[in-house]
Specification:
Radius of gyration: 19 Å
Helix content: 55-70%
Order of helices and strands: HHHHHHH
Strand content: under 5%
Shape: globular
Number of strands: 0
Number of helices: 7
Distance between the termini: 50 Å
């Protein structure tokens, strides 16, 4: 009989399955968009229009072409997998904060007559979350993970600067902010160690 999976192995398998399903969904949606004459692009965010607030969540799952979805897939898979190792519910909470923060930031600050969509805001949010999570939780292993991620993906930070009119630096910047905020919002409670001989009445 096969041996039961350890907790760490089970978490890794679950994290991998969730992220692969997520990436697959992005590609399926882009396929649907391409086959329907880019009809899904209407769910991108147009700034400062009240009705567009409903598009904040769906806009994070849509892309402007195959190259766009391809460029987001690998970093989203890697960063999402690492974040998901701490638990799928925590990942869902982090992503929700990132999507809402990034989407609202785009809605408030993007140039008029533009449509913003794509998962890059989530990528920047997960980057920011993993970068500071270890310091917030005071967990040495997560600090090391954050340092490694900074070394591998640190160049992402250039994406928060307005250097390309065709790229939503607003989505990147506010996604990054959402990731940092979520690290504090979902920080792990610290365990208080009682001294030996501590008695309760």
């Amino acid at each position: 009989m096969p041996e039961p999976r350890t907790g760490a192995t089970a978490r890794a398998v679950t994290a991998g399955a969730v992220m692969l399903a997520w990436i697959a969904l992005l590609w399926v949606l882009e396929g649907v968009d391409a086959l329907t004459g880019h009809s899904l692009d209407t769910y991108g965010i147009s700034p400062r229009e009240p009705a567009e607030l409903a598009d904040i969540v769906p806009s994070a799952f849509l892309h402007d072409g195959w190259q766009h979805v391809a460029s987001n897939s690998v970093p989203l898979l890697v960063l999402g997998f690492i974040a998901a190792l701490a638990g799928i519910r925590r990942l869902a909470g982090v992503v929700l904060v990132v999507v809402v923060t990034g989407g609202l930031g785009v809605w408030l600050t993007a140039p008029p007559n533009t449509i913003t969509l794509g998962a890059s805001g989530v990528v920047f949010g997960l980057f920011g979350y993993l970068l500071v999570r270890g310091f917030v939780d005071r967990r040495p292993l997560d600090i090391v993970v954050g340092v490694i991620i900074a070394g591998v993906y640190g160049s992402l930070l250039w994406g928060v600067l307005p250097t390309d009119s065709g790229i939503s630096w607003q989505g990147h910047l506010f996604g990054l902010i959402g990731g940092v905020v979520s690290a504090f919002a979902f920080r792990r409670p610290r365990r208080i160690q009682r001294p030996e001989g501590y008695l309760t009445a």
